[in-house]
Amino acid sequence: MSKKKLNPQTAIESGRARIDGKLKDLTDDQREIVLSMIAARERPEVLNATRLAPEGSVLSRVLRLVDNTNISYTLALAQIISLAAAWLTQNGARLSVPGLGTIRPTLWSIALGDSADCKTLASTTITRILRDSTGDDPVQMLPDAGSDAQWIEELAAHNGSHWYQDEVGQYVRKVLTDARFSRMKPWILNAYSSEPIANRLKGEDEKLQIDDPHYTFLGLTVGSTWHNCLDAESVLDGFLQRFNYFIATPRADKDAFDHFLFFADPESERVSKDIGAIWSGLIAQQGAAVEYTLGPDILPYLERWWGSLRGKWGNCPLPVSYTRRIGFSVLRYLVVLHWLLGKSGHPIDLETAELATRYGEYHLEAALCMLRMFDENPSEKYCTILDVRDRLIARGRPAEPRNIVMSLSAAQRRGISTSLVRSVLSVADRVDSTGLIGSLKTAKKGAPRCDRAALNERKRNEARIQRIRQTAPRTDPFSDAVPPSANG
To answer: Which of 303, 322, 432, 440 has the least C-beta neighbours within 10 A?
Structure first.
């Protein structure tokens, strides 16, 4: 097997993968991850970014900004979320959690999209809109680095900054394979938990040490080539599990030929000015960058939410190591979303907590989609095995590997081994109760929102935005602000 690629079928059938440059036996946890790649392959994409942008909020306005483009809503949302997390982190915001202490809103995200999704344009446009009157970026950025030694120096000088990485797949490949970046992977793993990292520079008597490394991260890359940039170890050892994933689903209502120029119309200018004014007001909120606290009902709510995931995600192909880290990131989202909704200075409430858990469930789905990208030859063999399994069960016959193999045609048997059948069946048996297997060929649709609930949500957020505008220090006239609408 190639050192830089992980073929799920090969790893499952052999029980081995190339790790640290050597073929090694898979542990139970690693085998679980490889199995998830097989099962996740057939998952329908049920990701809808509009569910993550409450009516009337600044998030819905960001989606409105890209309405007259073919830019994925997901990309615009990922950028504003990441910049908000960076601003809060850099200005000292944190969340006090009983029994845990305080945590920063240091979200790490990777957005995967098509090569024609205008990923960079979406990010640079939103950053430009949020610049202040002096033209400075809304947050401090981590400078580019050409080696691991330079990276740790830049982080020491700009600790807490925002690391924005275009073509992150290519960068990750350098971290995994280029000798100049060989020390970065363990440093990044430690930085995720703010554990000390250190480097002794040539000619220096004292080593460079960062006692509390922390930063926010947003990486953009092409989803179709993502799996080519990684090796088995990065998938199996937890490196990829540190990130939340956004899947930039293509726009169904637009294509590249609908608009020659983006953001050139008067409506885009008005929406841009409105977003900039709201951002300025959000920064000026009382208690915007202090210690956030949880309302008395939030931890019980989060405990109930976490327990409710057992039915779907407890027996799901997504490894629990991914699930656990995504669940923990919900705590970081609480601060970011509370601030973006204009509620700084008040304890985290159920409205914010519900939205944060919605982001958590989105990232669980996105992680499944990310894992499926590693099976670079997605034939119909998995669906074939599951279809035969369903037919046997319907006839009252045991869905055993031997019965399934005997039910296949000669042509099908050439592409499906008994060991692969056994592996797929083990996944199917585990997740059957979740409904994932039964919906392989049917894309789910989210339940329609009640019109009255959406209207009330929009009214609440519009009222908050009006208060936010009153605190905004910008001199831009608000007469050009976007009027309230059903779309935010």
So the answer is: 303
Tell me: the pLDDT tens digits for 290-346? Answer: 999 999 999 999 999 999 988 878 766 678 888 999 999 999 999 999 999 999 999
pLDDT tens digit sequence for 364-401? 989 888 887 776 554 467 778 878 888 888 888 888 88
Tokens at 415, concatenated: 């592409």
Query: Which of 464, 454, 466, 441 has its CA nearest to residue 53?
Result: 454
Residues 250, 114 contacting (CB under 8 angstroms): yes
